[in-house]
Amino acid sequence: MEKDITKLPVTALSEDEFWTSEEQVAQAANAAYFNLENVSQIEWDGFTEVMYSQTGSTKEISTGGINPGSSLVNSLWTSSYSSIRSANWFLDNVDKSPLEADMLSVYKGQMRFIRAWAHYRLMYQFGNVPIVQQVLDINEGKVPANTRAEVLNFVINELDLTISELSVAEYDPEFGRITPWAAKALKSRILLYEGTLAGDTNLLLESASLAKDIMDNGGFSLHHNYTALFRPEGDGSNEVILSRINADLEGQYHNLGQMLGPVSFHASWNIFSPTVALVETYPDINGESIQSSPIYNPDEPFQNRDPRLTQTVFDWRETVNYEGAIFENTGSWFNFRKFIDPSETSEQRSHNDHIIFRLAEMYLTYAEAINEVQGPNQETLDLVNALRMRAGQGAADDGTDILVPPIPLAGMNQDSFRMILRRERIIEFVGEGILYYDYHRWKELESTMNEPAVAVVSLEDRVFTAPRDYTWPIPEFELINNDLLSQNPGY
Known about the structure:
Serine Threonine Protein Phosphatase 5, Tetratricopeptide repeat, two-stranded antiparallel ribbon, 41% helix, globular, TPR-like_helical_dom_sf, signal, SusD-like_N, cell outer membrane
């Protein structure tokens, strides 16, 4: 069986020395796992209305300055093809090892997952991109782009093979390994995205079917407390389908707490902060929008609200004592509470895992896909209410539960349920790095990202040029190196 995923991989793998034992194969696999996304994925929420980012790479794009030389454009392209190269190198060589057929399939499935996802991220952001299925020599770098449809077909076929390869009976991996459920979750997410973009009923129904399979047969369950799920005590939760493991070891811890916290928390930087748009998205305790709520009081914005508001955003009007850690009002910015570990020391060694897929996403994927095809029903509304009620567990200041009434089905139609589902995705997943893809597929960026980002004061004037900015430019260096590629329209 594979070695502990928290062990650091070797930094250089020689083909002459490797592939002679399962231990060496495991080391090569561990190296590829470091290509999985990590907590820095939060930056992508900075391309939506609900979060502001002070990083230059985010601000360049959110303020309309995207160009073929943009650092995030370049890093997405290079990191994705680097992931593809790592997976290809593994798949090109692993058959040299003495592993039995079933274990070979298990290892191949994990690498195929990484390769498929990297191709999809490239396709989603850049459109037509080259499919690369083997390690290319330096003189083989001129590769023509495949069409978006060809890339999508490749990704789906790869994930189908991945699911098959990882479904051998004896594969019982430790937490953090790619499993058939993770592959199904990725495929379900992709089909929801593509089904939304294309208005394709068949894709939406297949997405829903995969999500239902995970819900019914995967053995997962919602974590008992929303706050705890995103702190170290939530690592290993039965809600998590796949996470990037961040052990408290040299080279594996991160500084997310420092990136999110105010200056009063170990001289943190507050690089990523919530906006008014996020705060106003949370409904009242009954699920009613605050714009129409009879119980919402703008002078007491945290009273009678969905409990996830106080579990996600600190009250900016006062100094907060959060389990002994003091968070002072910054005066102009809001601060995330989500992901903050109050027991963290001044060394700023955050080590909570980065959740990549979790059961709550499958709930909302299933509900959204079914609503788009059939409209609302009690089953899908129950999934939303389950997340709302989970948010109340242990949410009071004294650790007791807050009663969250269920939203009733009476009077609901497809449009009103769609609004609830979109709102639910925003407040459930903010900071987890997937909301940009939602705003993108809902075609809401051209409206939301042409409004200023505001907290206590205005933070940033934003610019989004549609339809151009829905597809990013091919990096300039790649066009110079590969004259078989052509630039996307508008750049």
